[in-house]
Amino acid sequence: MEEREIQVGLLGLGTVGTGVASIIKHHQETLSHQIGRKIVIKRALVKDKKKVRESWLSNLELTENANDIIEDPSIEAVIEVMGGIEETRLLVERALKEKKHVITANKDLMAEHGSTLLQMANEQKCDLFYEASVAGGIPIIRTISEGLSADKLTKIMGIVNGTTNYMLTKMSANNRTFDDVLLEAQELGYAEADPTADVDGIDAARKMAILSSLAFSSPVQIEDVSVKGIRQVSDVDLAFCQQLGYTMKLIGVAQKDEGQIEVRVEPTLLPNAHPLANVHNEFNAVLVHGEAVGETMFYGPGAGSLPTATAVVSDLVAVMKNMQRRVNGYSYQTPLFQSTFKTEDEIQSQYFIRLHVYDRAGTFAAVTNLFAQHDVSFEKLLQLPLENQTELAEIVLVTHSSSVAIIKKLLIALNQLSAVDKVASYYRVEGGE
Amino acid sequence: MEEREIQVGLLGLGTVGTGVASIIKHHQETLSHQIGRKIVIKRALVKDKKKVRESWLSNLELTENANDIIEDPSIEAVIEVMGGIEETRLLVERALKEKKHVITANKDLMAEHGSTLLQMANEQKCDLFYEASVAGGIPIIRTISEGLSADKLTKIMGIVNGTTNYMLTKMSANNRTFDDVLLEAQELGYAEADPTADVDGIDAARKMAILSSLAFSSPVQIEDVSVKGIRQVSDVDLAFCQQLGYTMKLIGVAQKDEGQIEVRVEPTLLPNAHPLANVHNEFNAVLVHGEAVGETMFYGPGAGSLPTATAVVSDLVAVMKNMQRRVNGYSYQTPLFQSTFKTEDEIQSQYFIRLHVYDRAGTFAAVTNLFAQHDVSFEKLLQLPLENQTELAEIVLVTHSSSVAIIKKLLIALNQLSAVDKVASYYRVEGGE
């Protein structure tokens, strides 16, 4: 065992940064057993040195100047847990130029600039690891790039945003509204003061871009992901889901058929028996389908101080093993394929559609005729009077698989039909056919 | 990219061996993209060269003499998928002495001789990888040793034998007997002609020895695992499970509290909502608890030609990446801890107990008094008349947590009680308290 310590710098000392410090403190014995060196946090970058912190952190040297970390030659690895994109990218680039290995938990950064940063790390013979950027405590990056490396992956489907999963779980279980549950999630610290990135699906889309780039060895940018968030999900939608045997989840899907890719994030109905339908609260889970392995699923905490820090420090262990063997800097792989994305003509899906219609003779026939004209058939259909609306009724149906393009045409035509007041909502249905 | 091929030798061309050949054939493009070299199976060891095989295997050079592989200097890695222990151990040792890397799917070999073989590989600067030996397509070895390397693992709990999970699923769903379902499993190829290793829990115990050695960095031998198989599980037991809201599974548990370890495999009752209760048929799943990460679960096919071969070939990719970087032979880690095992006094569990008692005044009081004397209390209790037995009744109960030693004393005392005909069955209950 080398007696030498490894000095690391922490960029950020928030929730995850504190978790990293805690794991390094409490698991030092098992960590140094694996890597033969003691880990020491030399310095941590914070916004305000004077902020009151937990007393066990008092030994940690703090700085408000990133240069104290980036330019310190004794620091061999930098852990980036400060978040943000542009400023952070500059720091990570400078760290790599200084030949420091980088571990990041930052999915925003990796989704936007991952490919460039990984190439730069490769050129600098530095490791750039980012296990913590997707699905916190679940080692899904490593599973895709190493555990299933021999397989051709065809589909990744997951719940990769804990905030929205918590919210949908509470909305479904207790028939509560979006606004009500959002407030609670903010109070509990599951949602940010500005919840946009989570509730509009952007956070999940970034993670799906990272996972699909890796799984399909094809570049996938955030712009390539079709995204719909959960703001418009109503208690009425959720009540009908329940009645029809479905659970609504914000699902990320990345799929590859015959060289063509589709990546999307949207609220999706799953049959209650589907493995992802039973992933509740802030938990994450990722289903991976491979040609050879079939279906596998990986489940765990998607966020939180210690779970995310576990992923960060496990990456640090990998960096240190590579240092021991002098083989850092191999994490980047040029994509094998160019990405071709499916058009809406080529994407097939079942849909849940909820309509407000005028409650009079001929309505039902007019609606069903329009479906027939578009060659869309039903798996399930309900017609009910609409509460507090004497003139209107509600038709709720689940279609058989059809192309997204046809469904969109159909939705426009439905909105124009005189028998229809409006299309109240529609969602994709997965795992039903 | 190096233009050179890597030549590998296959020891065995059964179910898994054929899967390995298939993956190497069909995924060659993505494989060589990752490792910069083409994989060629130079030769495969078989028992009978003349046996009729699928036509796509006809290009493969076969031999009945292991020396043609072990002594061929052009073969750099050996894939052992022949099974068996002693003869195979000699071949693996000889391959390592010839400086060939070894990938094995053999849990029997690894449970019995893993520690010695891993040390030998380390001395020879060779890799010895064995991802496929536990839970087929689930990369659980890599997850424990790398993905969660920063954490202190406290508990591994899993369904790691597909045969018995298939059998218990069918027995539970259709109220069928052990013998009936075993016959079907044998016809479908899920169970061997001699099903002993599976149904008596030995296969699962070997896998738990492998997982717990790794997870706790402590040597665990097969003899250290307490094992009970599923032969004595009756349709009556399963019917009561159902009635009480439990699912019976053959569960492996490895647990470490304050330095003390318990490893066991036995049919166990789980509350229906428990994640492992919903793992059906031949699927495997492993729950991993870590101090920092909390609870994670990994689910997938536990056996089968292609899933297991995925793990084997992913290991081969890891070997080849290491070859590229010239860092083979680091897979062995000296255990950090000596193993101290819990005694039955120190192990706490809930129990399901089913009694046949004489249906007369005072019986119930005598039985419950005996429980009270042993300081064991109930969570649930049923008394029912016993079918086709006018003199006897059945008492079924679930205790609160108690030490295993006390429960065993209580079971002996119950058998001696004049009010009791016999203890018909008893099982541990997990995840209830």
UniProtKB/TrEMBL annotation, chains A, B:
<dbReference type="InterPro" id="IPR016204">
    <property type="entry name" value="HDH"/>
</dbReference>
<feature type="domain" description="ACT">
    <location>
        <begin position="352"/>
        <end position="428"/>
    </location>
</feature>
<keyword id="KW-0791">Threonine biosynthesis</keyword>
<dbReference type="InterPro" id="IPR019811">
    <property type="entry name" value="HDH_CS"/>
</dbReference>
<comment type="pathway">
    <text>Amino-acid biosynthesis; L-threonine biosynthesis; L-threonine from L-aspartate: step 3/5.</text>
</comment>
<keyword id="KW-0560">Oxidoreductase</keyword>
<dbReference type="InterPro" id="IPR005106">
    <property type="entry name" value="Asp/hSer_DH_NAD-bd"/>
</dbReference>
<protein>
    <recommendedName>
        <fullName>Homoserine dehydrogenase</fullName>
        <ecNumber>1.1.1.3</ecNumber>
    </recommendedName>
</protein>
<dbReference type="Pfam" id="PF01842">
    <property type="entry name" value="ACT"/>
</dbReference>
<dbReference type="InterPro" id="IPR036291">
    <property type="entry name" value="NAD(P)-bd_dom_sf"/>
</dbReference>
<keyword id="KW-0028">Amino-acid biosynthesis</keyword>
<dbReference type="GO" id="GO:0004412">
    <property type="term" value="F:homoserine dehydrogenase activity"/>
</dbReference>
<dbReference type="InterPro" id="IPR001342">
    <property type="entry name" value="HDH_cat"/>
</dbReference>
<comment type="similarity">
    <text>Belongs to the homoserine dehydrogenase family.</text>
</comment>
<dbReference type="Pfam" id="PF03447">
    <property type="entry name" value="NAD_binding_3"/>
</dbReference>
<dbReference type="InterPro" id="IPR002912">
    <property type="entry name" value="ACT_dom"/>
</dbReference>
<dbReference type="Pfam" id="PF00742">
    <property type="entry name" value="Homoserine_dh"/>
</dbReference>
<comment type="pathway">
    <text>Amino-acid biosynthesis; L-methionine biosynthesis via de novo pathway; L-homoserine from L-aspartate: step 3/3.</text>
</comment>
<keyword id="KW-0486">Methionine biosynthesis</keyword>
<dbReference type="InterPro" id="IPR045865">
    <property type="entry name" value="ACT-like_dom_sf"/>
</dbReference>
<keyword id="KW-0521">NADP</keyword>
